[in-house]
Structure formats: structure tokens, C-alpha cells
Write a structure and sequence with these properties.
By secondary structure, the protein is α/β, with parallel strands linked by helices. The chain folds into two domains: 148 residues, Alpha-Beta Complex (Aspartate Aminotransferase, domain 1); 231 residues, Type I PLP-dependent aspartate aminotransferase-like (Major domain) (Aspartate Aminotransferase, domain 2), CATH 3.40.640. The chain contains 15 helices and 17 strands. α1 packs antiparallel against α8, α3 packs across α7 and α9 packs parallel to α14. 50% of the residues are buried. Bound molecules: pyridoxal-5'-phosphate.
Length: 400
């Protein structure tokens, strides 16, 4: 098989992004009907009936008392930290996360202290709490990377011993669990993302999952400028409300989730079968400790593969496979952080190793059957391996 980097036509006519939105025709039809109702009611935002219904559905799926819906997960984290009184000191944050997890610490007045990961899960290594939580530490913020749940029992234990609060980035973890316990069920608040690329989406959106009634009440006020009553502003709130249109899209998606989950599980299984046996290519296992929504599929390109990770990504991109290096280079190496004195000596070898070799592949395909999508990407990876030396030479030739 010839590759696009050597002049062939790309394997896929249309771009195949990792973050392709998951929208079934029935979901779209249900959404349009709900939007018609929104206009008939003429109730567009401010805690409307669809927002309340969405909150009930999300909370009950996750087995917790409250899901407080917000405009996005970034604001959900900001409001959660405010409601918890986290406004100064430092927070131990897994460096392998989307940069917003760290940024929100700074917006809240806390210094993020970046922690290394467990290679098996790519999540914050609990032992890092012991190493990194200094006298000014106030919180630990693990992320359930790719919906693989962090070791919350151990993280909570170590945090409690040190008087730290645990705030969890469950952005990827809708419908995921650890030994049967879902995000929101561990007794600590977790924020989740409903961004357009996630397993469950409201275009933009997010929520905090919690069992704590007082915390939920405080966050409902904070997301609405701090209003506790019509003319009664009790806290320094902001506008983080989600609209009825966003909620409508979430509600319209709910009936599709069981089938969506099955489909993604099928894609995960098919990739595993088709990629098995390619030397130097390792699959990131998603369901070692519990259920996963399989929204992401990631592989590691090890030295035995024959071409470097970045050469592989470039070759895939030329085939219209828009592979990503999530969360390369890690928060600790993002320009905003790495240039500052505080971060100059930070060494996170496990994070650097994982993020130097990871590739996330598409799990939802644009305009083609998913079986053809998975087989096409897998054939490409086999060919890139077989022609590894040439692929690498081509990449270096371009880079020089
Ligand atoms: C791990 C993680 N945390 C936080 C966020 C931020 O979510 P949002 O886009 O809803 O603000 C994202 C991505 O969107 C994410 O992947």
C-alpha cells in the first residue's frame, strides 16, 4: 500500500478528527422537537425546565444527589473551587490533563504543583501527594484521563491525612466507573464536561456532581451572579449558567447513549484486534479497573515500531486521520508555566515518557462505516510500521 506522504491519494476522502461530535440522526430529530418547545414556552435560560430535567437525569445516572449544570466544565471547576473556599495556597494537579485544570487553579488564586502519572492509567500517581503537598497545599486535583478513573480511594485517604480537599476533573468520565462506582459517587465533588467532543454533549456545558446539599446550593447561587433570592446577592458569583438550548441537546442525546456506548466498545475491541501484533505499538487499556465509555482510543509508539511518534502522526494526518497527542506536552511544559522560575526544576519522567509516545485515534467516523474507519486506520499503522525507516526519513527531511 502506498502512503499519502509518498504521493498517493489519502486513505480517507474526508478529515477524520479525534473529536468528531457524536450526533445520531434520531438525536438530531429529537433536538429539533425540543427546540420548538423551547420557543413555544419562550423560556430560554435561567434554570428552565430542560436544565432542571437534565440535572436530574445526569445526577441519577451517576448515583449522586446533585448535578449542577454550568456553561462549561472550566467554569464548573472555577465555581466549585470558590464554593469550597479554595482561594489561596497550592494544589497538587496531575500534569497530564487539559490545561484548563491547572489554569482554573491560578484563576482561583492557587498555584498548581504538577504531579507525575501512573503509566498504567495515565492518571495522577497518588504517591505524588506525599512528595509534593507542601505546607501551603490546600487541594489535590486528579483527572480521570480518557475516562479511566483515578485511584480516588487512595487519593482521598492521602488527602484527608494532610487536610487537603479533593476536587476531581471528571471531564471525560460520563458513565465511567471504578469497581462499579461512578464519577460523583466517591464522596468528593467532581466536575464533568459536556463539550461538543465528549461522549455526552450539550454543545458547550459541564456540571459538578456532588451529594453535598449545601455545596450544590452555593454553586447554584454562584453560577447566577451570587443571587440567593430575587434581590439578594450573598456571594461573589459569576455568570456560568447553561441555556435551555444546550440542555435540550443533552436531553435529546440520552436515549442514544446505550447504543453509542456499545458502538464505541465495538470500535475499541476492533482496534485492539486489528492492531494486535504490530511491533512497538501498545494499546492504552481503558477498562482495567471498571467500565469506560470508550470515547478515546490511544496507542503508544515505542522504539521498536520503527518510526517516531511524531513521524507517525504526520503520516496519519496526510491520510486525513487527524490523530492527536493528548495531553502533550503536559501542563508543566506549556509555555505559560514552564518559563516561570517556580516550574523550572520540575521533572516528571513518567509523564514525559507517556506523552512522548502517545497517539489518540479517531473513534467516530466522518461519512464512512465505523468498521471501514477502524480497518483503514489500522492498515495505515501497519504500513507505516513496515515502512518505518522511510517514514522517519521523510519526516526528518521535512523537519531539517
Ligand atoms: C480533562 C479535561 N478537563 C477539563 C476540560 C474543560 O472542559 P470544558 O471544555 O467543558 O470547559 C476538558 C476539555 O474540554 C478536558 O479534556
Amino acid at each position: 500500500m502506498e502512503l499519502a506522504i509518498f504521493g498517493a491519494a489519502p486513505m480517507f476522502a474526508k478529515p477524520q478528527p479525534v473529536g468528531f461530535p457524536l450526533v445520531e440522526p434520531d438525536t438530531e430529530r429529537r433536538f429539533h422537537r425540543l427546540v420548538d418547545e423551547v420557543f413555544r414556552r419562550n423560556y430560554l435560560t435561567n434554570d428552565g425546565p430542560l436544565v432542571r430535567l437534565l440535572e436530574e437525569e445526569v445526577a441519577s445516572r451517576h448515583g449522586c444527589a446533585h448535578a449542577v449544570f454550568m456553561a462549561n466544565a472550566t467554569l464548573a471547576q472555577l465555581i466549585l473551587m470558590k464554593a469550597l473556599g479554595l482561594e489561596s495556597g497550592s494544589a497538587v494537579v496531575g500534569a497530564n490533563t487539559f490545561v484548563s485544570t491547572a489554569h482554573v487553579c491560578e484563576w482561583s488564586g492557587l498555584t498548581p504543583v504538577f504531579a507525575d502519572l501512573e503509566p498504567e492509567t495515565l492518571n495522577l500517581d497518588p504517591r505524588e501527594i506525599v512528595r509534593l503537598a507542601g505546607p501551603d497545599a490546600k487541594a489535590v486535583i486528579p483527572t480521570h484521563v480518557f475516562g479511566v478513573m483515578a485511584d480516588l480511594p487512595e487519593i482521598i485517604r492521602l488527602a484527608r491525612e494532610r487536610g487537603l480537599q479533593v476536587v476531581v476533573d471528571a471531564a471525560h468520565a460520563f458513565d465511567c466507573d471504578r469497581a462499579g462506582v461512578r464519577a460523583g459517587g466517591f464522596g468528593v465533588p467532581e466536575f464533568i464536561s459536556f463539550h461538543a467532543t465528549k461522549f455526552f454533549s450539550t454543545f458547550e456545558g459541564g456540571a459538578v456532581l456532588t451529594d453535598d446539599d449545601a455545596l450544590a446550593r452555593a454553586m447554584r447561587d454562584l453560577r447566577n451572579f451570587g443571587f440567593a433570592g430575587e434581590d439578594d446577592v450573598r456571594s461573589l458569583g459569576i455568570n456560568a449558567k447553561g441555556s435551555e438550548i444546550s440542555a435540550a441537546f443533552g436531553i435529546a442525546s440520552l436515549p442514544a447513549l446505550a447504543e453509542r456506548r456499545e458502538r464505541l466498545r465495538g470500535i475499541y475491541g476492533r482496534y485492539n484486534r486489528e492492531l494486535a501484533g504490530i511491533p512497538g505499538l501498545r494499546t492504552h487499556r481503558l477498562d482495567r479497573h471498571g467500565g469506560n465509555n470508550h470515547r478515546y482510543y490511544a496507542v503508544f509508539v515505542d522504539p521498536g515500531f520503527g518510526a517516531s511518534r511524531d513521524a507517525v502522526v504526520e503520516a496519519l494526518r496526510r491520510e486525513n486521520v487527524l490523530a492527536r497527542r493528548y495531553f502533550y506536552p503536559g501542563c508543566h511544559r506549556m509555555r505559560h508555566y514552564r518559563g516561570r522560575d517556580r516550574y523550572r526544576g520540575v521533572r516528571l519522567p513518567a509523564t514525559d515518557k507517556a506523552l512522548g509516545s502517545i497517539i489518540a485515534l479517531p473513534t467516530w467516523f466522518n461519512g464512512i462505516d465505523w468498521r471501514d474507519g477502524v480497518s483503514g486506520v489500522s492498515r495505515l499503522l501497519k504500513t507505516i510500521h513496515e515502512r518505518g525507516a522511510e517514514v522517519e526519513r521523510h519526516y526528518r527531511g521535512k523537519a531539517d
